[in-house]
Write a structure and sequence with these properties.
- There is one protein chain.
- This protein is α+β, with helices and mostly antiparallel strands.
- It has a single domain (about 1-265), classed as Ribosomal Protein S5, domain 2, CATH 3.30.230.10.
- Helices cover about 35% and strands about 30% of the residues.
- It is built from eight helices and ten strands.
- It has helices at about 45-60, 85-100, 105-115, 160, 170-185, 190-205, 215-220, 235-245; strands at about 1-20, 20-40, 65-70, 125-130, 135-140, 145-155, 225, 230-235, 250-260, 265.
- Strands 3-2-1-10 form a four-stranded antiparallel sheet. It has a four-stranded antiparallel sheet with strand order 7-8-6-9. It has a two-stranded antiparallel sheet with strand order 4-5.
- The protein is globular.
């Protein structure tokens, strides 16, 4: 039996445009979905996992009909935490181990993006990424980790539908993305992360409005959101306590490590 544990994200540090192309910097956290593979009859799984299994066999001329893939879910669905990305990547990784096919994360990302827009949650690094194509523009850091306090809104968001919207950014927005991406490429650090994640969240409210966001941002200086979801991450216990006390429309999930979070594998 092969088990693959793929991280969630606390949304994105930035979502915008890089060289006029869609770009995100995901913020992985140590919450995981587990995908399990063993020999046996396939049980019912989400359609995107079925697609991943079929696409793998088509790409690598393998036969996985005798294999059962299951998921053991821990990541909250429909909130922008990259739960479907975890399931898809977990499926691809488990099949690659079983069939003894060596795949790096860049190849897995490109396969996954053929199924649906994909978060950069599984690289073990912070990267600048095109979620539509799986293309890695830049690797930003592989040694970056801090604490984040996670909240989810009560309303579910169908993130794949939102990803079909063509974002119309202003010239001012695009200038911010150019400056922020360039700055993080040159020097990736915590102070920039909390500043740019907040600004990106503010800019993207024009496409997906968070409940009470304008009020929250007056009381909480820095935050991170799922730009195509309903998740808020804050960086201090003080801000965590403000959200818990004053904004009951967001449920507190817990404290997590965020940053360079590795995919994990167990074989039995």
């Amino acid at each position: 039996m092969i088990s693959v544990f793929v991280p969630a994200t606390s949304g994105e540090i930035i979502q915008g445009l890089y060289n006029n192309q869609k770009a995100i910097i995901s913020l992985p956290i140590d919450m995981y979905n587990e995908v399990v593979l063993f020999e046996g009859k396939q049980v019912e799984i989400p359609f995107y996992m079925k697609k991943a299994k079929k696409l793998f066999d088509e790409n690598f001329n393998t036969n996985s009909d005798h294999l059962c893939i299951k998921r053991l879910k821990n990541i909250i669905s429909s909130k922008g935490l990259a739960s479907s990305t975890a399931d898809i990547i977990g499926t691809i990784k488990a099949l690659s181990i079983y069939h003894n096919i060596k795949l790096n994360n860049k190849i897995m990302g490109k396969i996954a993006a053929k199924i649906e827009p994909t978060d950069a949650s599984f690289f073990g690094k912070i990267i600048l990424y095109n979620s539509d194509t799986g293309y890695v523009y830049k690797e930003l850091t592989e040694d970056f980790k801090f604490k984040i306090y996670l909240f989810v809104g009560k309303k579910n968001i169908e993130t794949t539908n939102f990803n079909k919207i063509i974002n119309k950014y202003s010239k001012e927005d695009i200038n911010f993305f150019d400056d922020a991406f360039s700055s993080l490429i040159n020097d990736f650090n915590y102070n920039k992360v909390i500043e740019y994640s907040t600004k990106s969240a503010i800019i993207n409210q024009k496409f997906l409005k968070y409940e009470k966001f304008n009020d929250i941002i007056k009381k909480i200086k820095y935050l991170c959101i799922g730009h195509t979801g309903n998740v808020i991450g804050v960086y201090t216990k003080k801000d965590r306590d403000i959200l818990i006390k004053e904004y009951s429309m967001y449920d507190y999930v817990g404290e997590f490590n965020a940053g360079c979070i590795n995919l994990k594998i167990k074989e039995k």
